[in-house]
């Protein structure tokens, strides 16, 4: 019950930083790279492609984000994430250029166990909110995040 909305962050199609030809021509399934199920972003990717009527195939699945970044950087497929924390080996793609469907935004929340957390937990929340403030684009921040910063 003690949740604070931090931001609504756009999800983005992520491909290798060094562009590799990715197309949806000839009905070829789009190769996807995702964390192992269950994964919210994996579900969003597959449901978004299904709604758009675009074929896809799971090209690579990993239990770790490092594995996802390596597979995308190697050109095994595309993934979806936010712009936060992208390594230099990958980059966000403009969906209209690649013929990909638009993706929704992801709501970020800070959840607390108690209304009045202990000092250590309160300090950790302040550190997390400050890190979010620095990582998020100005237009995604909520009033609560600006006040905490």
The pLDDT mean sits at 86
How much of the sequence lies in strands comes to 25-35%
Known CATH architecture of the largest domain: 3-Layer(aba) Sandwich
Integer count of domains = 2
Any idea what the radius of gyration is?
17 Å
* Counted beta strands: 7
The main pleated sheet reads as: 3 strands, antiparallel
CATH classification, class level of the largest domain: Alpha Beta
H and E order? EEEHEHEEHEHH
- Report the total helices: 5
Record the strand order, biggest sheet: 5-2-6
For the terminal residues, how far apart are their CA atoms? 22 Å
Give me the CATH superfamily of the largest domain: Periplasmic binding protein-like II
Shape: elongated
Helix content: 25-40%
3D architecture notes:
The protein is an alpha+beta fold and 149 residues long. The protein folds into 2 domains: 2-6 and 106-148, no CATH class; 11-103, 3-Layer(aba) Sandwich (D-Maltodextrin-Binding Protein, domain 2), CATH 3.40.190.10. It is 32% helix and 28% strand. It contains 5 helices and 7 strands, in the order βββαβαββαβαα. It has helices at residues 40-51, 65-73, 95-98, 119-135, 143-148, and strands at residues 2-10, 12-16, 30-35, 56-62, 79-81, 90-93, 105-112. Strands 5-2-6 form a 3-stranded antiparallel β-sheet. Helix 1 links the parallel strand 3 and strand 4 (56-62). It is elongated and about 60 Å long. Residues 143-149 have low confidence and may be disordered.
């Amino acid at each position: 019950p003690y949740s604070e909305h931090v931001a609504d962050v756009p999800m983005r199609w992520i491909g290798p930083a060094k562009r590799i030809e990715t197309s949806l021509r000839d009905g070829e399934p789009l190769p996807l790279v995702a964390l192992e199920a269950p994964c919210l972003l994996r579900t969003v990717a597959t449901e978004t492609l299904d709604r758009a009527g675009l074929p896809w195939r799971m090209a690579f699945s990993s239990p770790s984000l490092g594995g996802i970044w390596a597979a995308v950087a190697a050109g095994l497929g595309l993934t979806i994430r936010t712009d936060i924390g992208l390594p230099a080996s990958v980059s966000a793609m403009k969906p209209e250029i690649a013929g990909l469907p638009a993706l929704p935004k992801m709501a970020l929340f800070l959840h607390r166990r108690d209304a009045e957390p202990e000092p250590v937990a309160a300090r950790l929340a302040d550190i997390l909110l400050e890190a979010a403030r620095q990582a998020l684009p100005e237009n995604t921040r909520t009033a609560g995040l600006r006040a905490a910063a």
